[in-house]
Amino acid sequence: MTLSALIFDVDGTLAETEEAHRHAFLLAFGQSGLDWRWDPTVYRELLKVSGGRERILAYDPDAAPELVAGVHRRKTQIYTDMIASGRIAFRPGVEALINEAREAGVRLAIASTTSRANVEALLGRRRQWFEVIACGEDTVRKKPDPQVYQLVAFRMGLPVEQCIAIEDSTNGVKAAVGAGIPVVVTPSLYTTGDDFTGAAAIYPNLAEVKLNTLRALVP
Ligand SMILES: [Mg+2]
């Protein structure tokens, strides 16, 4: 079968963004008078929950909805300013693989659970490389639910078997597998050692991964 599209997760996959997210949360907590200490150990645990608002609620299930919404809005503002002022580099091999795909006519898309503002801040002008960009606002259910992957395949008009997903997390793998899309994993800072059952392949990063490597994985 042909490989027609690559669908990328954003946080941890395109770039190591999780530390920027964590620092933005801490600044937003400080500005909101909260003394929540999300150190790397706590944050690693919280990353099992997709979505910023959901993550805050996982940490404090009793937090008032207005507080959660306010803190999250503030955090998004801080994060997007942070990202826009110092563009974060993509992980090794990402741009080379994207270039190879573009030259070969393999289509590109994004399936993320983060907000559109965050995704666009990270991509900047690189957003034009992606034909379809599905974000947190576009689905009712976030990863590990397969909805975002189903949506991307639908919008591209492609059978799921002709796509390959690239992910860095357990929830991402589950979402892609649930949609019937073969998935390769490049574990990130916060997901190294996690369970990637169902993945077609696992690589330290995309530096050694060529389009033909991925073509071989399409059933
Ligand atoms: Mg990710």
UniProtKB/TrEMBL annotation:
Protein name as catalogued? Phosphatase
The record lists the organism as Paramagnetospirillum kuznetsovii
Q: What is the lineage of its organism?
A: Bacteria, Pseudomonadati, Pseudomonadota, Alphaproteobacteria, Rhodospirillales
Database matches in Pfam families:
Hydrolase
Name a GO molecular-function annotation: hydrolase activity
Q: Which domain of life is it from?
A: Bacteria
Q: Which InterPro entries match?
A: CbbY-like (IPR044999), HAD-like_sf (IPR036412), HAD-SF_hydro_IA (IPR006439), HAD_sf (IPR023214), PGP-like_dom2 (IPR023198)
Matching PANTHER family, A to Z? CBBY-LIKE PROTEIN (PTHR42896:SF2), XYLULOSE-1,5-BISPHOSPHATE (XUBP) PHOSPHATASE (PTHR42896)
